[in-house]
Structures are given as C-alpha cells and as structure tokens.
Specification:
By secondary structure, the chain is mainly alpha-helical. The chain is built from 3 helices and no strands. It is flat and about 40 Å long. The termini are far apart.
Length: 70
Amino acid sequence: MRSQIFAELVKYKDRMLPFMPGQRASDKERAFFVIFSTMVGAVEIAGMLPDRSAQEKVLASARDFLLSSF
C-alpha cells in the first residue's frame, strides 16, 4: 500500500511542479512538499475539531500562511 501511495504522490507532484514557485526544479519540488504537506495537515487537523468555527480558523490560517509565504 505504501508503494502505491508513493507512486500516486510522485504522479501528483509531477503534474503540479510547473505551477510551483521557484526557478530551479529543486526549488519547485521543495515548494510542492511544503505546500502539499501543510494543506494535508490543515485538512486533517480541521477534521478533528468539533465545531465549524475552529475548523474554518485552521483552514484559513494555513491558506493565509501559504499565500503570504510564496
């Protein structure tokens, strides 16, 4: 299962790399992993919270951080 997930992640990364910030491929790859892992983490944490307001705060905070960082 882990190898299948890894293969899908690589395919997704390859599709998204042209849209990532950075000049070099290594910069774009770094940006992808930072952005993707932040998004996944924010969605997971928001899903654990009991109320809609707290969920929206986590998601908005992650979005705002990413937008201001790149």
